[in-house]
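Annual report, structural modelling task.

Input specification for the zinc ion complex:
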Amino acid sequence: MQSKIHVYTSGEPMLKVNAFIIETAKELVIVDTTLTSSDSKALKQQADSLDKPIAGIILTHGHPDHVAGTYNLAPKGDIPIFALSSVKKLMEETEEAKHKQWAAVFGSEWIPKWVYPNQLVKDGDTVKIAGLNFNVQDIGSGGDCDANSLWLLEDDNKAAFIGDFIYSKNHTYMNDGSILRWIANLEKYAPVLKDFKTYYVGHGASCDFASISKQKQYFLNYCNNVLKATDGTGIFNEESRKTFEQTMLTIYPDYGCQFMVALSADAVGKELMSHSH
Ligand SMILES: [Zn+2]
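The model returned the following structure:
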């Protein structure tokens, strides 16, 4: 049979992060594992309902909303967990800080211990999981965190699992910087992604090639309006931040993750000014 792709969208209302279950005739592959305790347990339940073993877990990038839930799928790390070494390193470097930042906010929904990748992959690798071939692209820091990858499934689905490389109809998390690299990566990987029909993304509905130029335009609008609102300084005060936020919400009235707009403003302002003299 052709592999079947199931989308799990989190019940958690802020991020509504996606995870995916790829079902083959005999086995399952999980792509990303959600943030909260409830969501990762529900993801596990959906996988269990298919009554096939999990052959492997893929982690696209190192943010908590994509890796934390691994704990409820493979608490002892006894399933192959695939990721770039840079993703593993980022998890190691940020786990403690993320716990400190978010544990109190999420309470019992916060997963207190991360399970780490145990199968490290690198750029250009073809990784076989459950009989499926995935081509791995290491896109470096040019995405929504400092370590990001694309997983291109080489079967008739023509499916690309791209993590948070594109935010489909959602405001983008840009707080970790590297916007210029991100824009460059959209340009660089467009010819690669052109061959794939469906992009399975971390937030929002699955999308296609047209979403690449939309994402680029989003960045240009964002940067342009950061400079406009701050009179070219990149430094916000309370009022200019509100003006900026309102402008972005007006340009994209139907986009989710609205809190991302103000969240990323300072970081983008800073990055823009680091390029000036
Ligand atoms: Zn995410």
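Residues 17, 63, 65-66, 164, 202-203 surround zinc ion (CB under 6 Å).
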